[in-house]
Amino acid sequence: MKLKELIESRYSVRAYLPRPVEEEKINYILECARMAPSACNLQPWRFYVVRSQDVMKKIQESYNREWFKTAPTHIVVCKDSTVSWKRTTSDNKDFGDVDAAIAAEHICLSAAEIGLGTCWVCNFNPAILSEVLDLSTNIEPIAIFPLGYIDEEKSFVPDKKRSSLSEITKWI
Ligand SMILES: Cc1cc2nc3c(=O)[nH]c(=O)nc-3n(C[C@H](O)[C@H](O)[C@H](O)COP(=O)(O)O)c2cc1C
């Protein structure tokens, strides 16, 4: 599939089948995330693949939605702020969130490419996540990605509502 077709066909999946995701598929997705670009190539992302039922329960508590509980696997993308690049010219801005977001989108696109569904989830309680994953203070959870086979009967493909190019672009 061409990249543009993949980008256009990916959508946020909010209904999953209980069928487990094969480890090779999870590894394929993580390999795609690992190859993402990052500032100064510092690769500050850290990935937590959650399949254990005990940990899963706490992850579900951190974002309490029925649909979220249907995913058989979750990948938590974190950034290590002791590793991420800080802009040196002026304001010391930390680009770790940007780097983690690029790796995260590789997760979404590669999952879609191999027929799996994901959804960005950022509206979680970070304290619950940090505790259950035993994260040190320098490791910040950025997003959770439920991952699984799509329950096509319950999942609906939303309209791709996007601003037009003319609304968001200036050619100067
Ligand atoms: C940074 C970010 C955070 C998001 N957080 C959530 C979330 O907490 N819960 C949720 O259901 N969707 C979340 N989403 C998914 C968006 O709602 C979704 O991407 C957007 O509505 C566009 O729909 P599409 O992904 O189907 O194209 C998030 C997306 C991004 C990029």
Helix content: 25-40%
Structural class: alpha+beta
- What is the number of E strands? 4
Question: SSE order, as H and E?
Answer: HHEHEHEHEH
Shape-level CATH architecture:
3-Layer(aba) Sandwich
Q: Which band does the percent of strand residues land in?
A: 15-25%
Radius of gyration: 17 Å
Number of domains: 1
The shape, in one word, is globular
- Parts with pLDDT < 50 across at least 5 consecutive residues: none
CATH topology title: NADH Oxidase
Number of helices: 6
**Mean of pLDDT:** 97
What's the CATH H-level superfamily name?
NADH Oxidase
Q: Which CATH top level class fits?
A: Alpha Beta
First-to-last CA distance: 33 Å
Bound molecules: flavin mononucleotide
Describe the main β-sheet briefly.
4 strands, antiparallel
What would you say this structure looks like, in words?
This protein has a single domain, classed as 3-Layer(aba) Sandwich (NADH Oxidase). 34% of the residues lie in helices and 15% in strands. The protein has helices spanning 3-9, 23-34, 53-62, 96-113, 126-133, 165-168, and strands spanning 45-50, 73-80, 117-118, 139-148. It has a four-stranded antiparallel sheet with strand order 1-2-4-3. Helix 2 (23-34) packs across helix 4 (96-113) and helix 3 (53-62) runs antiparallel to helix 5 (126-133). The longest helix has 18 residues, at 96-113. It starts with a helix and ends with a helix. Residues 11-12, 119-123, 158, 160 line the site of flavin mononucleotide (FMN).
